[in-house]
């Protein structure tokens, strides 16, 4: 926790948005030009978010201000808790309870709808970039596993890391998203837009629910094979359109089921609905939502305004909905 030295401000009166005597999180950028340029781009996005959401209603991390200290760009943010990944890791990857998954999912959809409404794609959604506002927890002993389990007290979250966020009018890099959360249109180099984030959210929700990643791979061909094993065949029109024909043969994925990699995928991947832990309706509704987020064709993937109305969210309490009641109203 750091307090900002006023005499290092980029201008007189800097940090007018920063509450007096309150600790902040300070992101310090290496004094290397490529990192400085990346920081400037992130600051541009954060300033636009502040402009569109001055009251911080839409759950994106709040930048208070920034300054240059001997060539190091420093960005001051609201101080938050652990990331949802770090909490999961410190809890021995014990998955989040379903009602926690529900509230976090609703907030993510709310925040990303706001970004999409404002012509912005995050492009790097993952559990590491979803932070709890406060990650304090209770501990409960699990007699079956003979271990203590942590339950976060407050599931309010913030979306962070806008270093790769891209406006609709800006150049779109060919490859975006961290591997495990990367959609098929990016792997196949078919171009991408807002649905890229929706796919990532679907992967994140699976991970919250089960405690491990849906697509555990670092190879494009294996990644596509896992997708087909879990979600069914890749649509033929996407195969015809892609430049990455090296992954296909005669209109189908070129994949040897009997190789060691093929056996690994066959033994470790199954159809999406097979991962449901129990047959209760709320569990099935979560997987219905995830399936709609993991549709291959981006234009057919559920949009976040529609996702927010999904029956999986019917069980949210009024308190859980309260933070997300307002529509962004920004186009």
From TrEMBL:
Membrane-crossing residue ranges in chain numbering: none
GO biological process: regulation of RNA splicing
EC number: 2.7.12.1
Pfam families (UniProt xref): Pkinase
Record has DNA damage as a keyword: no
Domain Protein kinase: residue ranges: 1-313
InterPro entries the UniProt entry points to: CLK_kinases, Kinase-like_dom_sf, Prot_kinase_dom, Ser/Thr_kinase_AS
GO CC terms, sorted: nucleus
Keywords attached to this entry: ATP-binding, Kinase, Nucleotide-binding, Serine/threonine-protein kinase, Transferase
Top EC class for this record: transferase
GO MF annotation list: ATP binding; protein serine/threonine kinase activity; protein serine/threonine/tyrosine kinase activity; protein tyrosine kinase activity
Gene3D superfamilies: Phosphorylase Kinase, domain 1, Transferase(Phosphotransferase) domain 1
Family in the record: Belongs to the protein kinase superfamily. CMGC Ser/Thr protein kinase family. Lammer subfamily.
Protein name per its UniProtKB record: dual-specificity kinase
Lineage: Eukaryota, Metazoa, Chordata, Craniata, Vertebrata
């Amino acid at each position: 926790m750091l307090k900002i030295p006023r005499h290092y401000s980029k201008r007189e009166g800097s940090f007018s948005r920063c509450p007096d005597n309150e600790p902040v999180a300070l992101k310090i950028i290496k004094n290397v030009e490529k990192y400085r340029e990346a920081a400037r781009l992130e600051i541009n996005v954060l300033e636009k978010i502040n402009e569109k959401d001055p009251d911080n209603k839409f759950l994106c991390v709040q930048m208070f201000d920034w300054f240059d200290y001997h060539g190091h760009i420093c960005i001051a943010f609201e101080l938050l808790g652990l990331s949802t990944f770090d909490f999961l890791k410190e809890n021995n990857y014990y998955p989040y309870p379903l009602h926690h998954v529900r509230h976090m999912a609703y907030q993510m959809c709310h925040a990303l709808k706001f970004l999409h409404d404002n012509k912005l794609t995050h492009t790097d959604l993952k559990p590491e970039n979803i932070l709890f506002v406060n990650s304090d927890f209770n501990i409960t002993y699990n007699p079956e596993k003979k271990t203590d389990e942590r339950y976060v007290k407050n599931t309010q979250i913030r979306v962070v890391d806008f270093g790769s966020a891209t406006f609709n009018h800006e150049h779109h890099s060919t490859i975006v998203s961290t591997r495990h959360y990367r959609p098929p249109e990016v792997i196949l180099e078919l171009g991408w837009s807002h649905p890229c984030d929706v796919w990532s959210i679907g992967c994140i929700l699976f991970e919250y629910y089960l405690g491990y990643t849906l697509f555990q791979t670092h190879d494009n061909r294996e990644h596509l094979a896992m997708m087909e094993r879990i979600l069914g065949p890749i649509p033929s029109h996407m195969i015809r359109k892609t430049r990455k024909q090296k992954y296909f043969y005669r209109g189908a994925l070129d994949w040897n089921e009997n190789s060691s990699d093929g056996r690994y995928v066959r033994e470790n991947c199954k159809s999406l609905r097979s991962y449901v832990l129990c047959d209760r309706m709320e569990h099935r509704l979560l997987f219905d939502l995830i399936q709609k987020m993991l549709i291959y064709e981006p234009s057919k993937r559920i949009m976040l305004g529609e996702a927010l109305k999904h029956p999986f969210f019917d069980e949210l309490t009024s308190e859980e909905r309260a933070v997300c009641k307002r529509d962004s109203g920004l186009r």
